[in-house]
Amino acid sequence: MELKSVMNRYGLKQKIFSIAPLFGLIALVVCFLAAATAKDLNIAYSMKNILNQSVVVAVIATGAIFIYTLGSFDISLGASACVSALVGGMVYNATGSVTLMFLTCVGVAVAIALINSVLASVFNLPVFVTTVAMLSVLNAVVLMLININGTGSQIAVPTDAVAGLNTTWFKLLVLVLFFAVCLFVFDFTKIGRLQKFLGGNPVCAKLSGINNKRLAIIAFVMSGIAVGLGSFLSITYAPTLTKNTASSVGMDVIISIVFGGMPVSGGARSRIYAAVVGAFSMTFLNQIMVMFNLNSGIGQMVKAVIFLIVVSLAMSNQRNKEILPR
Amino acid sequence: MKKWRRLTAFLLTAAMVLMMACTVMAEAPEMDESETVKIGVLVSDTTSAEALAFRAYYEEYIQNQYNVNFMYSDELKDSAGEASAIDNFIANNCKAVISLSSFDRPAQIAQCSGAGVYYAVATGTLTDEEYEAAKTNEYYVGAIGPDLMTEYQTGYDMAKYFLDEGKTKFAIFGGAIPYYTDMHIYRAAGMLAAMCDVGEGSYKDATGMDIIGKIYEDGAVETGAIGNVEVVGYVGGYDMDDAWFGKCGEMAQTEGLEVILAVGNGSDFFGAAKGEGVQIASVDAYADSYKEAMEAGTLNYLAGKFSASIGPIFMATYSAVKGYPIRDAEGNALALSQGYWVADSAETFNTYYAVDSSKEEPAYTKEMLDGLFGSSYDDFAAFVSAYTFDEIQGLK
Which of A159, A240, A249 to mutate to test the interface with B (most CBs of B within 10 A)? Predict the structure, then answer.
């Protein structure tokens, strides 16, 4: 009883909950290293592997945090990454320029994000609805792009063209730089503060004269840049692109954000690092399951159980139980 | 003098025999099984009859006979999934990867050889360009599986079987033709070529192997008359949604249809065609679902891969890991074709199935595979080329 009052007085409960995902990640890393040592794994290669498997989701989820902070939800991120990568691949095959391919990936992703944001904010439609519609459109575009390309099943960028960028250092550099930019915008500028305010209490924010349309557009642009970077990194890792490229990214982003401790209802308790923590936690968890040769069915069930636990814990820490996005 | 000559001859002969024995002893490969060898298996399909049969052979037979441990990938959907799975294998100290996934084979080979991990293709072959690029790579073990000409002939023989019975109305299930999967295109082309030969007509003004190009142009098979034979229905793809199943059902019930020729997964039509008097032929595997269909008369012809067909590529890979790679005189990796077992009656099917599904005495047993360890390319090729049921049984 006394402990409870002390915890409430100093806000300890809040603090513990806010850093719990980080402890979760540390616990997973410790478990992984212990199991890897016991099973005599190639730990250096495993760490590189974990970065390879996390970086795309970590980058895209970091950008998506801006949308989630507003209490919104974008289900079309994976399809957007696929379209961006395919168009980028086609541009490379037409021009032979990696720079143009990079710019195309980012440009296409930002354009898609802008369309989403314009539909949502200008026509006052719920973001979830516009992104569901966009998901259908983008899936159709993917098939069209592959057919236009003439091979019927894939668009392939020559491996040699991007092999130099498929390195640990390049991926780390992209992740660190983009995270630094997002951290600065999110935590050290007016834009980030206004977004948290708008996500936490849209009515109050509106009455305070905050331009929610402008903030929504900024959030989608940040997310678009992230998708563009993610699609470029996808090409460097696996330059043969199909309709299934980045197909799991959309769902992985949502799971990562929740794993990382981000309230999906957005608001003041949104954390920019949640995406990175969540993405790496998920990959470490996957790697532990791979190590013990557990098949994907069991893996999915374990993930589902952890997902439910995390969401339950997050809800128990919130006065407002409406944690679903708008 | 004579005595000395005899003694000299005896000593020379003895020396030669001793030298030969030493040479043989030095070259005889020794299978050291003291250390467990981890082998990763890339699979793009984890639920089909064929995939399950292959997995059972490796996990329930090979793994019990040799000191090996197979690590399977999840179901793979694209080349990124393949790269990711190979990364997992390497991190888990797999010494070799056997691939049943073909989104980007050159990338798979590059990734494995970059990490010093052996790589082999099971139940498939590389294209000529891919093989040229990989054949001297020390980590590329090779490929064993039906080559494209075998696929073409398999389709041809299947259609010819029914044409010889006087059937004239066919429907074709094109499987992965819309995704431009070579083996499915070649099988379908073979079927159409047989129709051209027997029906005395042409498919889009093409006959024989020229039909292959026509299918590549369209990414589909066109329905219509081929002389006095007719393709009355076609479905392609593996959408597996309600619309797709609806199209399959509609095709199976086309007016006048006599035979459905499936380039793969003919079992998808067993329900749709039941009771309609339509015969079904497919390329697939010797699995439970096909056994039941064959016994019930729903399935009439199966060109099936036998599960132990992936035994020789395992041994080639294992041999390479143990330091005895199998190479031709020029140092090139394996590139061997292997065909199907064809059953056109329940009796034949059950004979094949009994051997194929056995976990004690499968088609390729340990004793047979042991003979391939560190063997010459020619011996290995001769063993693989004798793939028919009777030939394999004759080797036992």
Answer: A240
Q: Nearest Cβ partner of B92 from A241, A246, A290?
A: A290
Which positions in chain B have a beta carbon within 8 angstroms of at least one beta carbon in chain A?
71-72, 74-75, 77-84, 87-88, 90-93, 103-104, 106-107, 110, 115, 178-181, 219
Please indicate, yes or no, if residue A34 is contained in any of the structural domains.
no
Determine the number of helices (DSSP H) and then strands (DSSP E) in chain A: 14, 2
- The model's confidence at residue B391, banded by pLDDT at 50, 70 and 90, is very high
Q: Please report whether residue A81 resides in a domain.
A: yes
Q: How far is A131 from chain B (nearest CA, A)?
A: 22
- The verdict on a CB contact (< 8 Å) between A245 and B80 is yes
Residues of A in contact with B80 (CB under 8 A): 234, 237-238, 245-246
Between the two ends of chain A, the Cα-to-Cα distance in Å is 37
Report chain B residues whose CB lies below 8 A from the CB of A288.
none
Range of the domain at A101: 54-248+262-270
Condensed to tens digits (0 to 9), the pLDDT of residues A283-309 reads 998 888 888 877 667 777 887 887 788
Whether residue B82 contacts residue B101, with contact meaning beta carbons closer than 8 Å, is answered with yes
Lowest-confidence segment of A34-43, A167-176, B203-212, B238-247 by average pLDDT:
B238-247
Q: How far is A115 from chain B (nearest CA, A)?
A: 28
The DSSP H or E segment spanning B239 is none
Confidence of residue B268 (pLDDT cuts 50, 70, 90): confident
B357: helix, strand or coil = coil
Q: B80 CA to chain A: closest CA distance, Å?
A: 5
Smallest Cα distance from A165 to chain B, Å: 15
Question: Could you tell me the two tokens for A181?
Answer: 């930019």
How many residue pairs bridge chain A and chain B with CB atoms within 8 Å of each other?
Answer: 82
Query: Would you state the pLDDT for residue B136?
Result: 96
| Number of other CB atoms surrounding residue A14 within 10 Å | 13
Cβ partners under 8 Å of residue B18, min gap 6: none
Identify whether the C-beta of residue B50 lies closer than 8 Å to the C-beta of residue B305: yes
Please state the ipTM of this predicted complex: 0.83
Q: CA dihedral defined by A99, A100, A105, A108, rounded to 10 degrees?
A: 150
Say how far apart CA B243 and CA B213 lie, in whole Å.
29
Q: Which residues are CB-neighbours of A73 under 8 A, at least 6 positions away?
A: A67, A127, A128, A131, A254, A264, A325, A326
B113-143 residue pLDDT tens: 999 999 999 988 888 889 999 999 999 999 9
What amino acid occupies position B67?
A: N
Q: Which of A159, A245, A295 faces B78 most closely, judged by CB atoms?
A: A245
Number of domains present in the structure of chain A: 1
